[in-house]
Design brief:
By secondary structure, the chain is an alpha+beta fold. The protein has 2 domains: 114 residues, Rossmann fold (3-Layer(aba) Sandwich), CATH 3.40.50; 147 residues, Distorted Sandwich (Hnrnp arginine n-methyltransferase1). The chain contains 9 helices and 17 strands. Strands 6, 9, 10, 11, 13, 14 and 15 form a 7-stranded antiparallel beta sheet that branches. A 5-stranded parallel beta sheet has the order 3-2-1-4-5, with helices on both faces. β13 and β14 form a beta hairpin.
């Protein structure tokens, strides 16, 4: 019988289907970013651990330089898939695919780099933050310091008020939408610039609860009916070039329960709170937005000031 965490894992991303991992292989932005970051970070002779290895592709990238790679995967279907794929690729023999729970596994010896890509927009659904925090505690208890290099090294999360199109051939449906970040989306209007609500540095302790209570100044008129969530993963910091190697997740747009008309100059108060690894509905249930400064109303009451 499954325990409580295993039951939750089935719903929150730990057993995502094999074809979903195949789709990730076809995501060129993701693949190029991780390959570049791993090539920069992993040096000859290093030992590497990957938590949540999926197809084993990131472990394979690491094996090009590393002496040894442990690739930990909890889903038995993906364990078989990873072993099959690695056998077809150069350096695959340096990767040991371990069927284990990333919440519990520690390598048999200290490692130099830990790769973990259990990343969903906003650190929702998947267990990136919880797995890394658990690993750090257990690793320090067994091996002492220092901690390995983590890849990604950091995450920046932001939110943005939006007018989102919810008309589907005449059928109105306010649904969760995931959008490519490098494409134009007709009917979508940015009402104000994004605001950062959390910066995660994986070398530091991370709070498992994210919250935001902030203001936006509306830049163009429209209907506020959604919040866009933006997640930028800093895969590696390249100090000698004053640069970073990044991967930007698809945007996630969540509908607000009560749409409202807004005008340029209005000030919005937006708030929400959720737990790392939590469900999307748990975030949606806390989202609030209201106009706290109405530009048109202030202009009508004080015409001389706004003339």
């Amino acid at each position: 019988m499954l325990n409580e965490r295993e039951i939750e894992s089935c719903y929150l991303g730990q057993f995502i289907p094999v074809h979903y991992h195949h789709n990730m292989l076809m995501d060129q932005n993701r693949m190029h970013g991780f390959k570049s970051a791993i090539a920069y970070t992993v040096k000859p002779g290093m030992k590497v651990l990957e938590l949540g290895g999926g197809t084993g592709v990131l472990s394979c990238f690491a094996a090009a330089q590393a002496d040894k790679v442990w690739c930990v995967e909890f889903n038995p279907d993906m364990v078989r898939e990873a072993r099959k794929m690695l056998a077809l690729n150069p350096h695959g023999e340096k990767v040991e695919v371990v069927h284990a729970d990333a919440f519990e596994y520690l390598p048999p010896e200290p490692v130099d780099v830990v790769i973990c890509e259990m990343i969903h927009v906003g650190m929702l659904r998947e267990k990136q933050v919880e797995v890394i925090e658990s690993f750090k505690r257990r690793y320090l208890a067994r091996f002492g310091g220092p901690l390995p290099i983590f890849l990604p090294e950091a995450v920046i999360m932001a939110v943005q008020p939006m007018q989102q199109e919810y008309d589907f051939e005449g059928f109105y449906a306010p649904i969760v939408q995931f959008q490519q970040n490098n494409a134009v989306h007709p009917g979508v209007v940015d009402l104000a610039p994004p605001s950062v609500y959390s910066i995660i540095d994986f070398t530091q302790d991370t709070d498992l609860v994210f919250s935001f209570d902030g203001k936006f100044v509306v830049e163009r008129p429209g209907t506020l009916n959604a919040l866009r969530f933006i997640t930028k993963n800093i895969l590696a910091v390249v100090p000698e070039q004053s640069n970073t190697i990044d991967w930007l997740n698809h945007y996630m747009c969540l509908p607000l329960a009560a749409p409202m008309s807004v005008k340029a100059g209005d000030v919005l108060q937006v708030s929400f709170q959720y737990r790392a690894g939590g469900s999307i509905p748990s975030l949606e249930a806390t989202m609030r937005a209201q106009v706290i400064y109405d530009m048109a109303l202030q202009s009508a009451q004080h015409p001389a000031v706004y003339a």
